[in-house]
């Protein structure tokens, strides 16, 4: 696969056209979400092309009440085919034995493994997709600036970011046009800084 050539070919396409191309290209597609701001955009766009696309939600157990309410509303509004994955240990249990370690704490790596990486691997092992839709956009982190619409995950899976070149203003307009919600009070316990990579992509 010539990723560079394909990215050039898709550069002028709409997100919907990119999604249609990727679903046609792969055998099995999934979209991942954490219901952070603007996630309703990618979820609406993917479900609009493939109604029953599996929506993998790895819930760390540390989301804000606002995020959980937003997630429930979005799932209902879009009738999403959600596949929920949670850590093997409850947040209440982990709070007692570990808490939320600071990024400099040696336990931070284990914490991230428990609440994010292990559930994600379990989800991918069960669904075995060859196409993975994400809502990565350039300008979010240094790593995300280094990828493109299409990139390859470590295991060779095709990672597709249909809204890669979109600005916040364009995303806001999409939300408004499709009467979608947004929730900005989002908390990721594995990230201390807003511009830090979450661990799944870097």
From TrEMBL:
It comes from the Bacteria. Residues 30-191 form the Phosphoadenosine phosphosulphate reductase domain. Belongs to the PAPS reductase family. CysH subfamily. Pathway: Sulfur metabolism; hydrogen sulfide biosynthesis; sulfite from sulfate. This is Phosphoadenylylsulfate reductase. Pfam families: PAPS_reduct.
């Amino acid at each position: 696969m010539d990723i560079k050539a394909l990215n050039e070919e898709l550069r002028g396409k709409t997100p919907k056209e990119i999604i249609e191309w990727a679903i046609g290209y792969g055998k099995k597609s999934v979209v991942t979400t954490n219901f952070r701001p603007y996630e309703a955009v990618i979820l609406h766009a993917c479900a609009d092309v493939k109604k029953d696309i599996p929506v993998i939600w790895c819930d760390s157990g540390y989301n804000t009440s606002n995020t959980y309410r937003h997630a429930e509303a979005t799932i209902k509004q879009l009738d999403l085919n959600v596949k929920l994955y949670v850590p093997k240990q409850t947040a209440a249990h982990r709070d007692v034995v570990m808490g939320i370690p600071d990024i400099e704490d040696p336990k931070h790596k284990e914490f991230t493994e428990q609440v994010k990486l292990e559930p994600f691997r379990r989800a991918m092992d069960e669904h075995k997709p060859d196409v993975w839709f994400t809502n990565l956009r350039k300008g979010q982190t240094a790593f995300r600036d280094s990828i493109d619409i299409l990139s390859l995950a470590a295991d060779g899976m095709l990672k597709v970011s249909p809204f890669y070149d979109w600005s916040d203003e364009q995303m806001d307009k999409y939300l408004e046009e499709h009467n979608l919600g947004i929730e900005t009070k989002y908390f990721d316990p594995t990230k201390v800084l807003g511009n830090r990579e979450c661990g799944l992509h870097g």
